[in-house]
Specification:
It contains 5 helices and 9 strands. It is an alpha+beta fold. The chain has 2 domains: about 40 residues, no CATH class; about 140 residues, ATP-grasp fold, B domain (D-amino Acid Aminotransferase, Chain A, domain 1), CATH 3.30.470. Helix 3 crosses helix 4. It starts with a strand and ends with a helix. InterPro entries: YheC/D. It comes from Caldalkalibacillus horti.
Length: about 190
């Protein structure tokens, strides 16, 4: 994962974590970023100016799972806060931590409890729209972990959709184990069908 951007005088980039490296030309930046990889193996995405807690951006992991009746259920969500000087919110790769979405929205955007409730409802609605589209187009899945971002204006962005075997482990890092227990319960219910 590499983040690259143009400044007034040069080009800068960071590979996962650390201080930005500087290149004077777009050609030099291109060669550093591609690093000998075939161009077909590189995916370019627009960077999202994610909301942050103490200067550390965060994303949201939303879990939806099928229950014992094979109906999709909301299982939980959490915020993944990047590690220091990291461009990724992947906790394992970037050295960050997990917290509740309520805590992240309050600390980053100053949201009130009513604003947090409305944003949580919006996130869950988006998740159900994504999984409805995936299943309508024939994708078979019984659980999904959807990574979403929230920018500094409160707009929700889709970062990644994990339709096969998303990790549950981060939910066990939260002090309140409610979501983790619900995830395990829904997984067990589904396995019994």
């Amino acid at each position: 994962m590499i983040k690259a951007w143009k400044t007034e005088n040069d080009y800068r980039f960071v590979k996962v974590q650390g201080k930005p490296l500087i290149e004077k030309s777009i050609n030099n930046l291109y060669h550093k970023v591609t690093d000998g990889r075939p161009i077909q193996s590189i995916l370019v995405q627009k960077a999202i100016d994610l909301a942050s807690i103490n200067g550390r951006p965060f994303s949201i992991r939303l879990m939806l799972m099928r229950d014992g009746k094979r109906e999709w259920q909301y299982a939980g969500m959490l915020a993944k806060v990047s590690g220091e000087d990291s461009i990724v919110t992947n906790v394992r790769r970037g050295g960050g931590y997990a917290t509740t979405v309520d805590d992240a929205l309050a600390k980053s955007l100053g949201y009130s409890s009513d604003q947090i409730k409305r944003k949580n409802e919006e996130i869950i609605r988006i998740g159900f729209e994504i999984i409805r589209h995936a299943t309508d187009t024939g994708y078979r899945s019984h659980e999904t972990g959807i990574d979403l971002g929230i920018d500094n204006n409160g707009k929700v962005w889709i970062i990644e959709v994990n339709l096969s075997y998303p990790s549950h482990a981060l939910f066990n890092r939260l002090q309140d184990k409610t979501f983790y227990r619900k995830i395990k319960s829904l997984a067990a219910e589904y396995q019994e069908t």
